[in-house]
Each structure stands twice: as C-alpha cells, then as structure tokens.
Amino acid sequence: MKQMLITAAIACLSVFHLSAQEAATGDWLLNIEEAKQAAADKGAPILMVFSGSDWCRPCIQMKQEIWDSPAFLEYAHESLVLLQLDFPARKKNKLSPEQTAHNETLAEQYNPKGEFPTAVLINQDGKEIAHFGYNSSFSAQDYVDYLKAQAIQ
Fold this sequence. Notes:
Glutaredoxin; alpha/beta
C-alpha cells in the first residue's frame, strides 16, 4: 500500500512538473504568419529564435538560462511575440516537412550564415531591429534590458 502511495505521489508530481513546464513555454509560436498576427494584435515585436534543440550545446544553455527564466518569460509575455525556429538533428525530434521548409525559409532570410543560437528581433512588418547570439556572461535580465532598449528604437 505504501509503495502504491509513493508511486501515485511521484506520478502526480511528474504531471505537475510537465504542466508547469508547458505553461512556461506556452507563449512560443511556430509559424511566422501566426506570429505576425499576434504581433499586430499585441502591438509588439517578434523575437525569432533559431536553435538546434537536440544538438547545439549553446542553444540548450540559452534556453535553460535565458528563455526559460522567470525574468525573460515575464517580459516576453507582456512585450514580445515569441517564434521558435528549431533545427533538430535527431530522427526522433524530426519536424514535419512543412515546418522544416518554414524554418529554412526564415533562416535564409534572417540567419543566412546558419549560426546557432541566433535570435532576431523584428517588427510587425518583418524588418530586423536586432540580431544577437548567446553570451554566457549575460544574465536573463541582461538580455531583457537589451531587448527593451532595442524595442524602443
């Protein structure tokens, strides 16, 4: 009986953790047209993030340290539209052909050098405002402050 209670408690905690994680990342869109519509509705710029979620160590670090941080998520929820453009390498993480083509089209325009991770802040019309990568000496708040300064210009 004790073992069943422990197992049930662990299962409940796992579900809660996944729900909290999904809530934390729920603001990320995957389609530029949806992002443009959301940006128009919100009156906010779009932050496009090019990453290799399953092979790029700096991308994984940036997600954990910056994109998943409470400071960034709070700012982004109020002031940005987030667009995730992933380029996974592992077969199990493969994107649909349509999503892959979508991401590659945007990469050709906004990340032609294929640098990962790359974040590009654009206005609602698609004009680039800022372009940056990962700097391990920057905190989440440093990135928030940088984005605030760029969005004002």
